[in-house]
Design goal:
2 domains, binds GDP-alpha-D-glucose, alpha/beta, 10-stranded mixed sheet
Length: 470
């Protein structure tokens, strides 16, 4: 096999202990790179003015910083503030993110953001091109970098290039609201393998290809459009199950869980953990919790709901508005229902270590994962893996999370229906041990089957065995 080259917007060189706090993508990618050796290329996370694209002084941006740790080589570029604003804070997070999550009402279509998005993708391609060897296999990740293969091809790159979209691909009727839908679809067709999280995403992409591009798609995953042939399939991302299970019983997890238990006076713990993002359904979840306390007064004083939401994308105004809304609702809920010795909701706007989170999951009775739309949702998978099989918690899961297609042991809900969500929470809290164990076993089987290694191996196997078709 040729060398593996992974490209993602953010690259976080991880060594030793830090690996324990890294998310799914970083863990999966790093495991692949460590096995075989390879290059991980992307943005360093640094913003500075020497990195301006499109400058007129003839001096392009500096070349990437390249260094090696063990078998992994890193290639990092910085972004200028203007590029960061247009590419990342603008087009990626205020156009594509809301649109692909069905939030047309929150999507802004600024032409200068789009121009910057293209320019930054071109910059990524120009910086990567000299580092590529002819038989390298290139795996590009997520909505920030859709045009990258097309840009690499323009620079003469003939390598096999695959793309994985971590977020949903929307229904064609939504996708065509993007003024540049055709250009980005053409960019997607420049890949050799196109991976989505679920069969629904694949179906919607194929529908778009047939309806708007006059292309064809067969049931085996072969798509012909705009003069190219590519392979399109679902590759559901997973987690490193052993790693999560180890974290859930680590000394740190036990210490944190014991502290939490001590503060709970034998009440049942309900848990939610999500980035503070409007796609995660946090507002609806809080409303449902209020209904639970209203409709089932016998549960008052018996439960504590802990919602951990680390700050996210705070430079984007919609996220600040969400934060205010959540703060208002939390204050209202606790104001109405708290008693001198009981506070129903603990809303925590900071992040915890992954070990602590897994420890909390393990002692909770109910895990609420109720996004309004989500590519996969790793929190749901981690929740399942972190449980104690003798006394597992119940997962309440949105039908709009990609992983709902695998986790048939969860209590699946429509998160917009807050009354039903409240009733389902009630049912989950009352569930017998037998049923909890039975549901957990079924979920655990699926989580193991679709783990992070399976995801990576299936995608790369497809990319490797492909005959390059220009
Ligand atoms: C995108 C797609 C897709 C959360 N709070 C803390 C913390 N986390 C960790 C979780 C989990 C990860 O962050 C979040 O992953 P999700 O999958 O739930 O959500 P997104 O960030 O939106 O991810 C999603 C994913 O890409 C992968 O393809 O599943 O659909 O939207 O691992 O545990 N980690 C730490 N502290 C926290 O407070 N350390």
């Amino acid at each position: 096999m040729g060398r593996l080259v992974v490209v993602s917007n953010r690259v976080t060189p991880i060594t030793g202990r830090q690996a324990a706090s890294a998310g799914g993508l970083a863990v999966g990618v790093l495991a692949a790179l460590r096995d075989t050796g390879g290059l991980w290329f992307g943005w360093s996370g640094e913003v500075n003015e020497t990195s301006r694209t499109g400058g007129r002084d003839g001096n392009g941006p500096p070349p990437p910083r390249v260094f090696r740790t063990g078998k992994v080589t890193y290639g990092l570029i910085d972004l200028s503030d203007a590029d960061y604003q247009g590419f990342y804070a603008g087009f990626a997070n205020r156009t594509l993110w809301p649109l692909f999550h069905y939030r047309l009402d929150l999507a802004s279509f600024e032409h200068h953001w789009y121009a910057t998005y293209r320019r930054v993708n071109q910059r990524f391609a120009e910086a990567l091109r000299p580092l590529l060897k002819p038989d390298d296999i290139v795996w590009i990740h997520d909505y920030h970098l859709i045009p990258m293969a097309a840009e690499l091809r323009r620079l003469g790159c003939e390598n096999r290039i695959g793309f994985f979209l971590h977020i949903p691909f929307p229904a064609p009727e939504i996708y065509v609201s993007l003024p540049w839908h055709r250009q980005l679809a053409a960019d997607l067709c420049a890949y050799d393998v196109l991976g989505f999280q679920t069969g629904t995403d694949v179906h919607q992409f194929k529908q778009y290809v047939e309806l708007e591009l006059n292309g064809t798609a067969d049931w085996k995953g072969s798509v012909n459009a705009l003069g190219r042939q590519l392979h399109v399939d679902a590759y559901p991302i997973g987690i490193d199950v052993d790693d999560v299970q180890g974290m859930a019983v680590s000394a740190e997890a036990k210490r944190q869980a014991a502290r939490l238990s001590a503060s709970m006076a034998n009440r049942q713990l309900i848990m939610g953990v999500d980035r503070l993002d409007y796609t995660k359904g946090i507002v609806e979840r809080l409303r449902a919790f209020e209904l639970l306390l209203q409709d089932y007064p016998n549960l008052r004083r018996q439960v504590t709901f802990m919602q951990i939401s680390a700050p996210s994308r705070e430079q984007v105004p919609e996220y600040l508005e969400l934060r205010e809304q959540v703060e208002l609702l939390s204050g209202h809920l606790n104001g109405v229902y708290s008693e001198a010795d009981w506070v129903p909701l603990r809303y925590i706007n900071r992040s915890y270590t992954r070990r602590s989170l897994m420890g909390f999951f393990r002692i909770s009775r109910l895990g609420l994962v109720t996004p309004l739309r989500d590519g996969m949702n790793l929190v749901a998978l981690e929740y399942v893996a972190a449980q104690d099989e003798q006394d597992p918690g119940v997962l309440v899961l949105s039908r709009f999370a990609g992983c709902a297609q695998q986790l048939d042991g969860a209590l699946v809900v429509n998160p917009y229906d807050v009354h039903h969500l409240a009733d389902t929470m009630h049912a989950g809290l009352a569930m017998t041990l037998d049923e909890r164990q039975d549901r957990w076993r079924r979920m655990m089987q699926a989580v193991r089957h679709h783990d992070i290694i399976a995801w990576r191996d299936r995608f790369l196997a497809r990319l490797e065995k492909l005959e390059r078709v220009a």
